[in-house]
């Protein structure tokens, strides 16, 4: 079943990890994708072209640097200009950094919040007007279970993702009047580049606390995004879907 046939999605961090899996999963279900990446490399262009041919959809790269407000605004204008309709936004791109509270500079904290919260909101503000005019849409913000657990060394990153989760709830309340749904996915430990950046002890602690005792694959997070993007979740908004193997 083609769950997203004829729809158009914007996916940030589209060239690797969870974002890349979301792009391919959406394409496999008939969705055209505008894939936002910081650098449009020949490898990204080749990959997107291959996905287009394989799935018979349109996949276009959009240059987006979440550390640069002007880049965000330019990308927003480009997306609105290219997309006939805009049905799905997946705010996936972000950065991670660990450090104990007393050893983390305010500069580093600000950087995490700028990328993981404020840039996401700025981009979504520039795109959601199109959804408002359509009176339909699904926005999916990728947070983290780091927002839920006060593990040592997690203050800055966890707080930035907790703020995104809370912002998503307010967005859902305000945008529901326009038939726009806003939900959050909170992955646990997932086999992406961030997996390799985590301290092994912290990574293993989270895995061992989960019911399934393993890390997630990016595809498993993409499957959750597919559900929230599709009509199967038409009456779900303002919620956080944890994809963490059952940390209880």
Brief digest:
The chain is of the alpha/beta class and about 250 residues long. About 45% of the residues lie in helices and about 15% in strands.
List keywords for this structure.
single chain, 248 residues, alpha/beta, globular
Question: Describe it for me?
Answer:
It is built from 8 helices and 7 strands; from the N terminus they run βαβαβαβαβαβαααβ. It has 248 residues and is of the alpha/beta class.
Alpha-carbon Rg, integer: 17 Å
Q: Main beta sheet, described?
A: 7 strands, parallel
Cross-sheet strand order for the largest sheet: 3-2-1-4-5-6-7
Give the distance, in angstroms, between the N- and C-terminal Cα atoms. 33 Å
**Average of per-residue pLDDT values:** 94
Estimated structural class: alpha/beta
Number of beta strands: 7
Q: Catalogue the unreliable spans.
A: none
- Bulk shape: globular
Q: Helix tally?
A: 8
Question: What are the SSEs and their pairings?
Answer:
Blueprint: E1 8-12, H1 17-28, E2 32-37, H2 42-55, E3 59-63, H3 69-82, E4 88-91, H4 106-134, E5 137-142, H5 155-175, E6 180-187, H6 193-197, H7 200-209, H8 218-229, E7 240-243
Parallel strand pairs: 1-2, 1-4, 2-3, 4-5, 5-6, 6-7
Helix pairs in contact: 1-8, 3-4, 4-5
């Amino acid at each position: 079943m083609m769950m997203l046939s004829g729809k158009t999605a914007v996916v940030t961090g589209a060239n690797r990890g969870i974002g890349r899996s979301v792009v391919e999963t959406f394409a496999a279900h008939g969705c055209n994708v505008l894939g936002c990446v910081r650098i449009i490399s020949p490898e990204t262009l080749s990959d997107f072209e291959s996905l287009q041919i394989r799935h018979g959809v349109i996949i276009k790269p959009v240059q987006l640097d979440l550390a640069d407000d002007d880049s965000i605004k330019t990308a927003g204008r480009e997306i609105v200009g290219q997309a006939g309709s805009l049905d799905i936004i997946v705010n996936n791109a972000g950065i991670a950094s660990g450090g104990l509270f007393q050893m983390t500079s305010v500069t580093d904290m600000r950087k995490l919040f700028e990328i993981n919260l404020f840039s996401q909101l700025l981009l979504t503000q520039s795109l959601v007007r199109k959804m408002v005019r359509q009176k339909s849409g699904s926005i999916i913000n990728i947070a983290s279970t780091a927002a839920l657990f006060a593990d040592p060394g997690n203050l800055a990153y966890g707080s930035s993702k907790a703020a995104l989760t809370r912002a998503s709830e307010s967005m859902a309340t305000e945008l529901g009047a326009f038939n726009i749904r806003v939900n959050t996915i909170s992955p646990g430990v997932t086999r992406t580049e961030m997996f390799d950046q985590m301290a092994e002890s912290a990574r293993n602690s989270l895995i061992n606390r989960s019911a399934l005792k393993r890390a997630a694959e990016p595809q498993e997070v993409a499957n959750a995004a597919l559900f929230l993007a599709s009509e199967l979740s038409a009456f779900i908004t303002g919620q956080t879907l944890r994809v963490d193997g059952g940390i209880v």
